[in-house]
Amino acid sequence: MSPAGKALVPHAEQLLRDVARARQAIHEMQPSAGGALTIAAALSVCTYFLPDVMKDFQAANPKVMVSLRSGTSVQVLKMVLDGEAQIGVARSLNHPEVETMTLRDDPLILVGHPNHTAARKRRVRLQDVESMPLIFFDRGSSDWTLSQGLFRRAGQLPNTVLEVETIEAAKRMVESKLGLSFLPQIAVSRELRGGKLVAIEIIDVEPLRRNLDVIYPRHRPLTRDAQALLQLLQAAANEETPVQKIQRSGKRRSQKSADNSGPRPA
Q: Following CA atoms 215, 220, 226, 231 in sequence, which dihedral angle do they give, to the nearest 10 degrees?
């Protein structure tokens, strides 16, 4: 491309964005009995994060027909790029043709039944976890690779007692006291709040961090319905999670212990 062509590209892209916004504005001024909104999301997001969001959205927008499609993160990205979905919600989605907004962290956390020895301790070392019965899900997935890599980097071999296909199956096995499992935080929030499961901190390794992202086309403006959903997604993501509450409580206890351990006045 010539220098002149390169200089023209950003102006042409801005012009296309302005035309798209103008068309969208005209379309939204037309009277309508209701709209349609298509969302693509990872299966775990559909199952554990979106139900409460969609309940609030439908209450505020009863005439909008919503189509929710699930897939892997790569499939979610493709649906948004191909115009099959206006918004996508999954993990670590980046592409030059989409805007990516990180909603919040969604780490893989080690969870166990409250009666499990490690669960009662709440804080353990990786070498202790290595010998405990572990349940993994979806062999070959990014979640499986991430949790397996934790032991591989330490030169350890996890004591795998069960491998299942889904997050939900792994969670039920943990609730049945068959072992511990590394599960997405959004998948166990309800159980952590209700005391059915307990989060266990591994103190000598970095947390298995992942982002929960929302994406939408860079050159196609969002409809009002999509913008309303985006606001609800952000609000839901900003709510404090059970794990964050535990961590905040632990920090307060540590600070209180430190304050009490200081020298007493004579």
A: 60
